[in-house]
Amino acid sequence: MTPIPHKTTHASRTAGLTYILKKSLLSALVALVLFSLMVGVRTEAGSDGQLTYWTRFGEVAALVAGVFGGSIVIELLRQWIGPAGAEKLVPPAVQSGMSFVGRYLAPALLIFTLLVPVIFYNQRYILDLAILVLTYVMLGWGLNVVVGLAGLLDLGYVAFYAVGAYSYALLATNFGWSFWVCLPLAGILAAFWGVLLGFPVLRLRGDYLAIVTLAFGEIIRLVIINWQSLTGGPNGVPGIPRPSFFGIPLDNSDDGLAAKLGIEYSPTHRIVFLFYLILALALLTNWVTIRLRRLPIGRAWEALREDEVACRALGINTTTTKLTAFATGAMFGGFAGAFFATRQGFISPESFTFQESALVLAIVVLGGMGSQLGVALAALAMIGGFELFRGLETYRMLVFGMAMVLIMIWRPRGLIGHRAPTVYLTKAQAISSDLVKEGHG
Amino acid sequence: MDYFAQQLINGLVLGSIYGLIAIGYTMVYGIVGMINFAHGDVFMIGGFIALITFLILISLGLTAIPVILLVVLLVAMAITALYGWTIERIAYRPLRHSFRLAPMLSAIGMSFVLTNYSQVAQGARVKPIPPFITGGYTLHESADGFVIQLSNIQIMVVITTIVLLAIFTWLVSRTRLGRDMRACEQDQTMAALLGVDVDRTISMTFVIGAALAAVAGFMYLLYYGLVDFFMGFVAGIKAFTAAVLGGIGSLPGAMLGGLAIGLIETFWSAYFSVEYKDVAAFSILIVVLIFMPTGLLGRPEVEKV
């Protein structure tokens, strides 16, 4: 579809103050109607089951005033900044700046991440948050293989996370298998489910693919909830064993790691161990992805994203290409799931809702669909930002949703909007992501 | 046999509600080519506005049920339509010519906003209302005492759906707006060149979709007697499934898909297990799509190189 040129805004620019006031008044009027009943009238079921209501006109007035003021500010800003022109190729100055930042930002971030447990050793909260962020970095990198590289829209990624988590939880609690045996198994099982999902969707494209992956995620969640004899249903699986340091438990016992090393036991050891474990898993995901991009299979994924018809014409087997993409992405999801289970010690279906899938997808898209550094930064921003608003309680998801909308409007192509090509003639040149297709599959 | 007939009635009523929501999905998809993830929440907002209007009207002392129903329906449709318009204006219009995933994520964000907005504004508890339309007809009574009931509310839901579909079909096929909508669906640039106001047409599509979702919310409230802030998610996914099952972009397909999902759910709960009714609906979607990749009534996608 060819883009339609935007309506020119010159007329509005000359109109000035009256135009702004008129537009803001209109926004305020719309806000008044929108909020009149939903905010202005609060309903609540009484003790006898009868609904009662009371009015809150003050809140409505405040909101409408807020919208009025906000839209004046937005209009002023819009006139001040003016319409932004689209740039196709990254300009050289920006590119050299980006490559400078890109060259040093990633190693700097990595070194900082490695040092986090040293710097924040006594701050349990920060360590826990860092582990959470790294889990999402890993999930983002895993989903990036499917969405960013192969261009297959997956709205049910959390299903593989759930498969990995439940694989480890059930194997460990029922058979007493160790984490290090279950971790590969969880990955393999998740990859198997990825192939299972891949088969029916081979012929599907676009939104048909989206709904099938979404349905798949929901099916997995519903089966986990309802298969109570195996999974414990909504009550979840409690008492999942903590991971050991390759067989040596991280506890206060005589054969624990602390005792063997001859140092004083501290519960922080386990947190630090978990931190490095997820860091290693995430870096493994990253390394495998970077290597795969240079292998024929990775090139086939990116070719598939760019043009499926051309792919077939060149003799690329699209079936295996799609299935390997699903399987690889799912495997990393499974690893992350097993880690999640061992870290939490308790899992329930509530952790594997559609919101998680949406969150991971948001991280990938916000990160720039294919940029490894971008995904890591996006995970940090999303999860960290989400934590910042912890005090807001119920308003948190509201703010989160608004942020998602605003970020998409601000940077539809993600934080890091360019790609590093893996093949080039003489000189590696960053490509603006406007030129990168997002795939139809 | 009697049991089957009763389930058929229940399934058709549920399917009508799904179908009305599915039309909103399919219309938006047809014209802008995006999944409006927030549509299920628009349906929920419609239910809430209907509930609040009911409460106000009753506390004002109105007793004429038909008048109350009509006023509630109109208010819910009007305000929810404005919600649809605002959502399009804020979250989708700036991303109209952006790449495919951006509006979808913006829609998911909008869906979070709406869900939590109603939780914050109206509380997390389920809001029940007493039944307004009572009574019904006994169609058949078998020897062992099983009665096929057709309640008045079920009749109302089905008749409202049929009337709305008739109006809607007329709107799309006979009016200027419908012609504009179909033109935009085929080629927005060409439509704009021929004097169609594309922005306005797309806005109107969202307005109509939201109004239909409000009707669905209103009927859900009457039929089940309750609303809560989370009902939009499940209903939205089901309706989206219905739209895709019928072939997304096709209006009769959306209704057909809605009825199919409603019937599958009802019969699965009646004959197999209630717990797995959603699994059944989703599995049948996947199976149908394996053999008909563009749904029941969807046009096959022609790929141009």
Automatic annotation (TrEMBL), chain A:
Give the originating organism: Bradyrhizobium niftali
Q: Which GO terms describe its molecular function?
A: branched-chain amino acid transmembrane transporter activity
- CDD domains documented for this protein: TM_PBP1_LivM_like
Entry-linked PANTHER family: HIGH-AFFINITY BRANCHED-CHAIN AMINO ACID TRANSPORT SYSTEM PERMEASE (PTHR30482), HIGH-AFFINITY BRANCHED-CHAIN AMINO ACID TRANSPORT SYSTEM PERMEASE PROTEIN LIVM (PTHR30482:SF20)
Tell me the membrane topology, using the record's own terms. Multi-pass membrane protein
The identity of this protein, by name, is High-affinity branched-chain amino acid ABC transporter permease LivM
Domain High-affinity branched-chain amino acid transport system permease LivHM N-terminal intervals: 20-115
**Record's keyword terms, sorted:** Cell membrane, Membrane, Transmembrane, Transmembrane helix
Carries keyword Membrane? yes
Localisation: Cell membrane
Where are the bilayer-spanning segments? 20-39, 60-81, 101-121, 133-163, 175-196, 208-227, 271-290, 358-382, 394-410
Lineage of origin: Bacteria, Pseudomonadati, Pseudomonadota, Alphaproteobacteria, Hyphomicrobiales
Any one GO CC term of the record: plasma membrane
Q: Name one Pfam family in it.
A: DUF3382
UniProtKB/TrEMBL annotation, chain B:
The cellular location(s) given in this protein's UniProt record come to: Cell membrane
Primary localisation category: membrane
The name this protein carries in UniProt is Branched-chain amino acid ABC transporter permease
Q: Which family does it belong to?
A: Belongs to the binding-protein-dependent transport system permease family. LivHM subfamily.
List UniProt keywords, sorted A-Z. Answer: Amino-acid transport, Cell inner membrane, Cell membrane, Membrane, Transmembrane, Transmembrane helix, Transport
The alphabetized list of GO BP terms reads: D-alanine transmembrane transport; L-alanine transport; L-isoleucine import across plasma membrane
InterPro entries membership: ABC_transp_permease, BCAA_transport_permease
Which positions, given as ranges, span the membrane? 12-35, 42-62, 68-87, 99-118, 153-172, 202-223, 280-298
What's the protein's topology in the membrane?
A: Multi-pass membrane protein
Any one GO MF term held by the record is:
L-phenylalanine transmembrane transporter activity
Q: Which organism is it from?
A: Bradyrhizobium niftali
Which GO CC terms are listed, alphabetically? Answer: plasma membrane
Q: Which CDD domains match?
A: TM_PBP1_LivH_like
